[in-house]
Fold this protein.
Amino acid sequence: MGSSFEERKDNKNDFEDYFQIDEWRIVEKGFSPDKNRFAESVMSLGNGHMGIRGNFEEHYSGDSLQGTYIAGVYYPDKTVVGWWKIGYPEYYAKVPNAADFIGIDVEIGGERLDLAQWHLEDFKRILNMQKGVLRREFTAASPEKDNRIEVSVERFLSLARREVAAISYSITPLEKPVDISFSPHIDGNIRNEDANYDEIFWEEVDRGVHSGGGQLTLRTKKSEFNVATAMRSELSGLQVEEGTGIEREPIERKKFIAENIQVSAERGQEINLTKYIGVTTDRDYKKERTAARAEDRVREAASCGYDGLLDEHVGEWQEIWRDNDIKIEGDKKAQQGIRFNIFHLNQTYTGHDPRLNIGPKGFTGERYGGATYWDTEAYCLPFYLNSKDDEIARNLLLYRYHHLDKARENADKLGLDGALYPMVTMNGEECHNEWEITFEEIHRNAAIVYAIYNYIRHTGDRQYLADYGFEVIAAVARFWSDRAHYNPRRDKYMIIGVTGPNEYENNVHNNWYTNRMAVWCLNYAFDVKNYLEKEHPERSEKLLSRLELTEEELERWRDITEKMYLPRWQEREIFEQQDGYRDKKLDKVSDLDAEDLPLNQNWSWDKILRSPYVKQADVLQGLYFLSDQYDRETKKKNFDFYEPRTVHESSLSPCIHAVIAAEIGYPHKAYELYLRTARLDLENVNRDTEDGLHITSMAGTWMAVVEGFAGKKAEGGELSISPMLPESWDSYQFHLNFQNSLLQVSISESGIDVELIGGDPLTLTIYEDQHRITRDSPAEVPLSGGEKRNG
Amino acid sequence: MGSSFEERKDNKNDFEDYFQIDEWRIVEKGFSPDKNRFAESVMSLGNGHMGIRGNFEEHYSGDSLQGTYIAGVYYPDKTVVGWWKIGYPEYYAKVPNAADFIGIDVEIGGERLDLAQWHLEDFKRILNMQKGVLRREFTAASPEKDNRIEVSVERFLSLARREVAAISYSITPLEKPVDISFSPHIDGNIRNEDANYDEIFWEEVDRGVHSGGGQLTLRTKKSEFNVATAMRSELSGLQVEEGTGIEREPIERKKFIAENIQVSAERGQEINLTKYIGVTTDRDYKKERTAARAEDRVREAASCGYDGLLDEHVGEWQEIWRDNDIKIEGDKKAQQGIRFNIFHLNQTYTGHDPRLNIGPKGFTGERYGGATYWDTEAYCLPFYLNSKDDEIARNLLLYRYHHLDKARENADKLGLDGALYPMVTMNGEECHNEWEITFEEIHRNAAIVYAIYNYIRHTGDRQYLADYGFEVIAAVARFWSDRAHYNPRRDKYMIIGVTGPNEYENNVHNNWYTNRMAVWCLNYAFDVKNYLEKEHPERSEKLLSRLELTEEELERWRDITEKMYLPRWQEREIFEQQDGYRDKKLDKVSDLDAEDLPLNQNWSWDKILRSPYVKQADVLQGLYFLSDQYDRETKKKNFDFYEPRTVHESSLSPCIHAVIAAEIGYPHKAYELYLRTARLDLENVNRDTEDGLHITSMAGTWMAVVEGFAGKKAEGGELSISPMLPESWDSYQFHLNFQNSLLQVSISESGIDVELIGGDPLTLTIYEDQHRITRDSPAEVPLSGGEKRNG
């Protein structure tokens, strides 16, 4: 009957070895047109301000998902719904595919270069993660084979100048002298494949083109974001004096500008075109200046030159890797996997703009729309908190603070007090429209508060509570207070009609996780209130009065914390996921046939709902968040019951399970779970990488290593680690940013080595013992249990 | 806080007195353009084969919902859904608005008659329910007031010749002689307002027009139903010899045919145009003959003449009223209301074609699509069973029998054995696409079986079980057996993840009604199996072998009947609607503010779901169906608990409550509930009559009178009545068709009088006592409790 995950995986994955194993690079050797969309996703570049998929610069008539995305720019796509329910949003905010700015069409001796038509003799597409550069190299012969050329292309989106991209495109004729025509262009005639009603999202505002470059300014319909894209092209490698013997002709039509550049090349002569691109939006400039600023950016870029820009950019990546890298020795696949995740997290969100957030697909595809899910607070924050400056995490918190009024409106729409943060959002307004999610998956509200708590204990920045935090915490507490009802028959408060993190149950009563986190939020609200009253009495008084927090309301909050109903299954000594879960037919995943998986592609929805199968950590999510409040035995009992019933059909699920498995002494299980996401996109495990990468789950992989294998915790604001070493690894090493200290943690068979590499000395607990770590005194501790921990 | 239904109703209903009170007619006196759609719905005509809304024949530029519908003809409109779930249907079968055949454009002295532009001096639109005729009379002056005419129009859809309609259109110039131009036409350029993607549903197949008439044949796209509409027009009232002095000009264009007929009329001279219409479909004829048959129909009709056709038609209605009428004395409003309901039920479904069924809006609007809901079995069948020949009800049963294979496919799609009848269907395939309904509202399956049981006990036609019934019963039993699971912890079977009749709860566990009816179905399957084995051993053996019913399977069925979990709330001595219902905040409807109602127009869906409010009879639906298995006390306790929490936001709800209220001695409550649907559409109580009439709930009104006030039951195949007399009525009278007897039941203050007016003598229980009723010995019994029963 049953089959293990590994068996199923082996059965069908022909993507597993598609890319070569390399510690710093993703190498595609040989081109597979049928895997092009998949490779395009993997080869995406981003710099927080914009992103592009791994599309080709030159015309390509084969299958491709063209993708250019600008952070914070969205289109309100009219909602599609079969059966309207009161409270649904009118639109779904989507990241629109923006003007294609990488395009450089090429003709060789009058024949258009098109890798779908030309004969490829070799082909390499290489993502260099160390440098943040995408490179292609190939030799191609034209369809009639009368032209044969060698091409190498390199591009990057500058991390040093976020509005700048640069492309270096080189062609060498191999057989004979030829005329080469380059047509660098900006093409605004693009669409979204996932548009609800096949609408065109953009209209033209302005364009201009001249010898040397030009600009195209588009505006999104309805939301009216102006995005200006400018370009400038330079040729080099000519034997004649620069600028002579070249014909340049500007071309323009609706939503399109190009420059046609003709040049003759000798056999063996490498001709290089450098295209500088500037992309600006009216999110940063006045509408009327946006285009001029884009032209400024390309002018500055060109004067710096390709190599200069590249140096700056690589320098930024060096800094990122210095702080963010996880080094793994003895397992190149694992090393590549974790770096791939860290690389894309850094490409997606840099924290430079508190109006931005982390979309589930980042800048790598169209799916899901919106920018922000609870993924940010629940799964991504730990990565940014532990490996970035505090300001980055703080910006993620401020994003929600700025949306507080909209969250209040959202609660009001459902007839509730306080604030309900949206399930999916771009600007603070709810975008989702499935009642069981939009209206019922309200646990998301707790994650917003938990993120504040998590931020404070990692950074010690309690001032944040007075300035911003308490307003959010109080509004969420008020929501829980109204949403819970008192059941006099049982003398308990209950929260009914919810969907928990496990979305394979809908409209349940008393989801343990939701109820538990609601109580936690209310208790935390009291903690913070007490702190403010003590440390910021004036601010506190002002806040309480502005929020109109009455004694009566606080009394109800207190009452709820004392009398919340938390379902338990006494005989099994576990928490019950929700009322009635125990009445299901309690099969395990191992009882399933392999062909039933994934359930969401094989079973009708009702069959999934009435099954015992858990989509993602639910009770265990609560035990993860509130880890310090539950002992190991409790975690073990709940893990032993729920994990065998969890299908992990959310990419956010395995990491939480991995962390708990590591803690309760299941190292093999932890490693198995870690593997499910570590190379999720590199090996196209879910068969949907072509739609874009699973950006938010990448942070979960980081979590599985640092919080799972290394057992890092921050309970009560005290840092501790409790490392194990996965069997197949020789060692691993990472940095930890904690409060005012920066640590380097190295774990190998020979022991644990923790060094202070920046900031203040601190006390670190390793396993059970406290160690004072200063610049001069690192901690050196033997690995507990050694390999047995993974046995 | 609270407010009664009556108060709320008084607050806002400006439709209440729109039509004049008349025992046999619906009279609209004076024209209100803003209520035109409402009046058009009320004034709909139908004859089982086709139907038309009360639209005007002549051009009307004001607001109107043009509606012409042909029974059994549907268009598969591509599904709209926000979030696709496995198992959803690809399309929603919709009744397409068909070619408008009533159209007769009129010009008077070159000015087009248009009631939105002309000055109306008086206006009457009268639906004569006794005769099944719609009549309009008005005097109108042209915009410049230089023409003034008197118009009277009459039309009907023949009950005697179902493919024929006839219109008599008369004009009398009032001021001066004028040229009159008639343009009778057939217009296929129509759309559905509720088309999902604004598609045009029809394409032209053929057309032809000549002096005297023509035909237009259209075909629905995708489903490819051919519908031919032919017309023929005759003038009369001319002083010159017929046919002279008249100019006739055929006109045709794409999907449109017309004839322009010009004639001069003296002041005071009434000119009459009679338009005969024939409508045929390839459901009844070969595609290539459909048009010719439509032309045959108009030729035959014309040779019969308008008056001859009308006589035939009125004769049919006389027969219907003889058998179907409910006479109420002392309350004209009630009389009009009940006749309106009976009239439309007879217009919608005549039982002549087992491929047809009863759409929730009949032929009066576009909404809901599909033709068949569980409404048919649960609410409509009793009306047809008790007041029509047995064959009519039998055809309703056969409709489902013919869809059995599709119901098997439907269950298989959800991964289940046996058969699951669709929530909404036209041809047996599921059309609905809300997971909580489509996949979870599975109780509908029980109603299909219950209808068979109900049919047998009313007709005694047990042969039906052998021929058709058992196959359906066994397939449904098999579904229940697979859908229930055994819970070893409680040693009970459970059915989880369902939506009960109360659609204001979704995805609940152990809905009492669903579980109870599942057990009932399984028990009935055994009863029928035993009967067949005894009375039809050969057929029985064949059937059991064909259905592959093993002893093992039957053992499971038996086990389920013995161990089904049926939630009870012990302390309150009631059945619990579903697991966890008692944990809700158990407010009553009287706790609501008036502006909260109806909830489905004012509350977000999650608020409705977590409220205690019941949309329609749920536990009480079970007590109604299985009335003989529960005592009065049980009914009373459950009614007392659930009724005050029921918002009756389905028009199907009050009738069930009325029947039970009457039985348990709440006559005032019964009458109040009866009133909620008796004039539902006549007074536009739900503010949606403009979309069409609530056809299926009309049968509920009949039920409230006969099963409620008169207390008619058929328990164990024995007829009984237990009448009360509503306070404001002097008397009421109806017929009952039961097994081989036809009874006339009269109830007044002076007593109950039951006469045998057809068929065999029978034994009837009145209150507690049995009466043998023959042709010569009617029963005469005093009214029990007299007026006190309504006190």
User: Anything to note?
Assistant: The two ends of chain B are 27 Å apart (CA to CA). Chain B touches chain A through 46 residues (CB under 8 Å).
